[in-house]
Amino acid sequence: MTLANAPASVSPIRLSDYRRPAWTVDTVELDVDLEIDTTEITSRLSLRRDPAQSLPLRLDGENLELLAISLDGRPLDAADYRYENSVLDVVGAHDGSMLETRVRVRPSANTALEGLYLSGPRETGFLLTQCEAEGFRHITFFPDRPDVLARYTVTLRAEQARFPVLLAGGNPDGAGELADGRHWARFVDPYPKPSYLFALVAGRLESIRRDYVTADGRKVELVMWSEANVIDRCHYALDALERSMRWDERAYGRNYDLDVFHVVATHDFNMGAMENKGLNVFNAKYLLADPDSSTDEEYRAVEAVVAHEYFHNWTGNRVTCRDWFQLSLKEGLTVFREQQFSADMNSAPLKRIEDVSLLRRTQFPEDAGPLAHPVRPAEYREINNFYTATVYEKGSELVRMLAGHLGQDGFRRGTDLYFDRHDGHAATIEDFLAALGDANHIDLKPYLAWYAQSGTPRLHARGEYDAARREYTLTLSQLTRATPGQPEKLPLPIPVKLALFDQHGRMLPLHLDGQTVETEKVVVVDKASQRFVLRDVPSHPVPSLLRGFSAPVVLECDYTPTELALLLAHDADGFNRWEAGQQLAALAFDSLHGAGHSAACKAWCDALAASFENPAIDDALLADLLTPPGEIEFADRQSEVDPAKIHAQRQELQRRLAQRLGANALLDRYNMLSSGSEVQLDAASQAKRRLKRRVLELLALVDTDQAHALAARQYETAAGMTDRLAALGLLVRDRAPQAAAVLADFRRRYADNPLALDKWFAEQAKVPGEPALANVMQLESDPAFTLKNPNRARSLLGNFASANPSGFHRADGLGYRFFAEQLAELDALNPQIAARLATAFNGWQRLEPVRREAAHTTLQGLAGREGLSRNLSEIIGNVLQ
Ligand code: PHE
Ligand code: ZN
């Protein structure tokens, strides 16, 4: 028996070191004998050798107990192989050789949730795998890299009573009974795939099914699987899957390609979901939905994630990534496709607002601090640390710019060519740009710089109006600050979608370069500074820039409050209208501490008071308009951050708004928005609930007792989770007298619903300021709390450290110390989750000196601990630099 672990510290892996695999695999046959505590896997690999390289056979294998090994039917002597430091070296293999190994793994002892593991209690839980990025090497020996594409035949065997359901990726290819109460099932996947897309599931699961016929005539059975007690909550996801499939046929001409499509829900999952070929696995949070336990946001998230994983079947699976540096090739593109889909299914401007807010809250801080990395990183130590907002969300913004550049038809021509060229292969970002460009006879190489350069560009805009010449000159300049390892920055191609408004809020026709165009135009800024002269402009205009957020940059434009108010009132671009409000709110925020325009706060309040009375504005957009940028976004604009101060100031800003709107108007609106006894999920009903929540929050700032009484009643009478959680959240955050009772009730009501209970933890972790830590420490010792479940750990610790700046960043540093202790404990169980939560320390260098010092001390203490995982030490090391 041999067990081999990787050494803890490793040198980085570099993109520039990429080499084609010396050995690939044509076919994989896996026989898996499943048991909760020990599972045995026999694998037969037919090997292909790259004739241009003469390296001996080397396979990855992590924590495997090697039971038997043979080459071309001959058992190997100890001298013919070596298993050490997570690699297996074999002598004597040649092109066409067949390597057979048998290994043992321990699913019930696997707390990292990577490889084969147990979900749920050992008596009732089920077994499943997670292989992205490098989990397959925890199951068997393999060249575990995405550019090795093989055809898989998988035979599962297990005790029938304990594991009635046996699933693997691909098409079913027989099943039957065995002696002594065991049974088997075989799956064949006809499409070559990388090992990270392998999956199996085994246990007691229920299903709901639907027949589907693809546009090109294939009959497919769609099946959702979950544990019996939640199977009724899978219907919404099944509907969403069908919508996604139809949409991808229409929008991208992509059809599904197997006879079955299985989706399985688990409560124990490190990420959101996983696109394993033919057998998606979902964090239950993104699959289960019902009105009593899911909010409207969660319904939208389920729809989005179902679509995202389904879309991966083409962008990721049929065309996969050459290496993990190309991760955004599949993730950025798939996020973009999901965003388009969600925009089509729901409201496009609202989706854009939601996505840009997410980008600003998660990706901008990443790009501005020590964890900054390009969308295509140049090096990593632990690939799991690179499933980041930069790779996903900024990656999607880059695809959006390319799509915008090519136009709808051009982009479709480009993706058609991309799929044609690279189907069944592992591709690079260059391949993607080349396919898009070639299909349109355009050179898109300049955009490659966006993939290589980290940091958020600042786009400075200055407008000058010459009344005599009726000319408006717009000077646009860009600057990207240095980021770790990248002191020098190049100018990038920045598409700026723009329009001009006159003083009455009417759009002006644009005369640029002698041509008359429409009222909206895209100019590309690709130098450090450029001037654009617009002619025949009748009066001093107000520019609307970067419409629809046409590039992921920070726009710096010296608007006056009046100009922003004008855009907020008149801009036809829903996103920019909201954006004008956000910028005005930022000016108002600054004015509270005596900086900038003293009139800004009044201007913001007046403008929103007008919007509040404007029946033409959709309820959901109004709710978003009435919400100023979050504390993290405000912090991002400051060089010395005091989170307590930011919290207080943002509250004050909102209080002024509430005062301006008036308690009576808020109360009237709240009453008008009260909803019926059943949850409707149509857009208008969701919008009402969103606005109702916002109105109640504002009311609480001016008539606290009244608002709390209403919230308590809303909690009791709520038809669904959206209204119920909104009420609970308000009472808990305000530490209202009614909070204890609703918390106790919620806990009782949802005692058997872990996803709902997660929200119970999350809301309490978000109580602002001083009281947060005591709360969180107490909840940490609650019997329902466990570090072993990622959703639960994220609910409490993730929300505390990443979504509650004033609670976490205490001046006494106790928040940091408590959190670091938890991280160390978590790291021993699940390094991926520990590392992800640890990114909450990002940005500590910009804290005011007292907190900075406290954070620094804590981080150094954590870094100095023995036995940290590669995942956590990489994040802590990078954060500290
Ligand atoms: N590939 C998954 C997705 O984005 C995310 C994931 C990564 C899941 C790594 C598990 C492990 O759709
Ligand atoms: Zn994805």
Provide structural commentary.
The structure is a single chain. With about 900 residues, the protein is of the alpha+beta class. Helix content is about 40%, strand content about 20%. It has 26 helices and 34 strands. Strands 6-5-9-3-2-12-15-14 form an 8-stranded mixed β-sheet, with no helix packed on it. The radius of gyration is 28 Å and the shape is globular. The relative contact order is 0.06. The model is unreliable at about 1-10 (pLDDT under 50). The structure holds phenylalanine and zinc ion. Zinc ion (ZN) binds near residues 308, 312, 331 and 334.
What small-molecule ligands were found?
A: phenylalanine, zinc ion
Number of strands: 34
The biggest beta sheet reads: 8 strands, mixed
> How much helix is in the residues?
40-55%
Instruction: Find the structural class using helix and strand composition.
Output: alpha+beta
Number of helices: 26
Show unreliable segments.
Answer: 1-8
How much of the sequence lies in strands comes to: 15-25%
Average pLDDT rating: 97
Task: Round the Cα radius of gyration to an integer and report it.
Answer: 28 Å
Task: Write down the oligomeric state.
Answer: single chain
Globular, elongated, flat, extended or rod-shaped: what is the shape? globular
Cofactor: Zn(2+)
Family: Belongs to the peptidase M1 family.
Domain Peptidase M1 membrane alanine aminopeptidase: 236-445
Domain Aminopeptidase N-like N-terminal: 111-197
